[in-house]
Amino acid sequence: MREEELEQLSLHFQTKVQEARRIMEDTGSIRSFHAVMKEVLDYRKWFEFQLFFQKTGENRKELTNNAFFTFSGGEKAMSMYVPLFSSVVAKYDGARDDAPRLVSLDEAFAGVDEQNISDMFRLMVDMDFEFIINSQILWGDCETVPELAIYQLLRKENAKFVTVLPYIWNGKVRRPAKDGEMERR
Question: Where are the domains of the chain?
Answer without folding.
Answer: 1-48
